[in-house]
Amino acid sequence: MRSGKIERKTLETEVNVELDLDGQGKTSLNTGIGFFDHMLDSFCRFARFDLNLWVQGDLRVDQHHTVEDCGIVMGQAFVRAIGDRKGIERVGDCLFPMDEALVQAAVDISNRGFLAWQVDLADGMVGDFPVEVAEEFFRAFAVNAGLTVHIRLLAGKNRHHVLEAVFKAFGRALGLAAGKNRFDQDVPSTKGVL
């Protein structure tokens, strides 16, 4: 079973995560931010990852620390779960439509953390979630998981639709990349290592 469990406690947050890459998209989420829970559930359903996530954050300050720290810890759990990277597809991409929104996501499990974020969306709130912290989540996840991630908004203006398409596209792309390659059990790299 490809799973990872991480607990992290700082002066700003306490985060406990269990991530199973060979799941069915089931979640148990409690971040204290309703819309963020909805987005993480959407991500997991399209990645087919099981995720248990509990967070106690300094929401009296704002949502930034909680969201970013979830990205850090989920990225670290992903590294534990993916293991030596042998026998994986390594890359995945998705073009995800949601009503007027269209998002493209591409992922390489490269062991080189990088985020290219081209989601030009007006700042504001979706429920209890500030739009600008989405980028912080994806950057923290990508850097800590060693992923090269490109996310691009091709169309859309409704913030809820756009962010939901982003999380779903990323989930689908990462799920494909983490998938098992039934033909090749080596590390998918010309270097022989990732």
From TrEMBL:
Spell out the reaction equation it catalyses: D-erythro-1-(imidazol-4-yl)glycerol 3-phosphate = 3-(imidazol-4-yl)-2-oxopropyl phosphate + H2O
| Localization per Swiss-Prot or TrEMBL | Cytoplasm
Q: Which GO terms describe its molecular function?
A: imidazoleglycerol-phosphate dehydratase activity
Statement: the UniProt record of this protein carries the keyword Cell membrane? no
Enzyme Commission number(s) from the entry: 4.2.1.19
One Pfam family of this protein, by short name? IGPD
Keywords, comma-separated and alphabetical: Amino-acid biosynthesis, Cytoplasm, Histidine biosynthesis, Lyase
InterPro entries named in the record:
IGPD_sf, ImidazoleglycerolP_deHydtase, ImidazoleglycerP_deHydtase_CS, Ribosomal_Su5_D2-typ_SF
Q: What pathway, per the record? A: Amino-acid biosynthesis; L-histidine biosynthesis; L-histidine from 5-phospho-alpha-D-ribose 1-diphosphate: step 6/9
| Family of the protein in this entry | Belongs to the imidazoleglycerol-phosphate dehydratase family.
Protein name listed in UniProt: Imidazoleglycerol-phosphate dehydratase
Which organism is this protein's natural source? Answer: Syntrophobotulus glycolicus (strain DSM 8271 / FlGlyR)
Lineage per the UniProt record: Bacteria, Bacillati, Bacillota, Clostridia, Eubacteriales
Give the gene symbol. Answer: hisB
